[in-house]
Design a protein that fits this description.
CATH class: Alpha Beta
Shape: globular
Largest sheet: 5 strands, parallel
CATH topology: Rossmann fold
Number of domains: 1
Oligomer: single chain
Number of strands: 5
Helix content: 25-40%
CATH architecture: 3-Layer(aba) Sandwich
Radius of gyration: 15 Å
Length: 149
């Protein structure tokens, strides 16, 4: 499992302010560890608490823990690279709950499922540090109004 995604506690939390949460959904494969860590680092700099299923899922019925993490998240960042069945199931549940989501896809595997083409998504290059930074420009998709807050 990748290292814990939670970085140092932002000053807002130290002052008692609850931060918005963003659940990071990506295939549970080692090649996505760096992506999850980079996203978490960017979220922390924006005073958003990153949440990852690998840090949330505990003993018990795994699917109920996953669904609870999705229900309690304020927003999601979802890596739809390779249309991983587990990620797509989790995304479907989040979509049913009308959770705002931003989609990511690796450049070398940039096949967007037809039902998601109209949404905002970022194409990233995992080999290029700048391609994973918070300053990387959007490269595809349509604007999703609920993400503009």
């Amino acid at each position: 499992m990748p290292e814990q995604l939670t970085q140092s506690i932002p000053e807002d939390v130290a002052r008692g302010k609850e931060l918005p949460t963003c659940l990071i959904l990506a295939p549970q494969e080692a090649r996505f560890d760096r992506v999850r860590r980079t996203i978490a680092d960017c979220l922390v700099t924006m005073s958003v608490q990153p949440v990852s299923l690998d840090t949330q899922v505990q003993r018990g019925v795994i699917i109920s823990n996953i669904l609870r993490a999705i229900e309690t998240a304020d927003a999601l960042i979802v890596d739809i690279t390779s249309a991983n069945p587990n990620v797509m199931y989790e995304l479907g549940f989040a979509h049913a709950l009308r959770k705002p989501a931003l989609f990511l896809v690796r450049r070398d595997e940039a096949r967007i499922p037809a039902d998601l083409v109209g949404y905002l998504y970022y194409v990233y290059d995992d080999e290029d540090e700048a391609g994973l930074s918070k300053d990387a420009p959007p490269l595809g998709g349509a604007d999703v109004p609920e993400l503009r807050q």
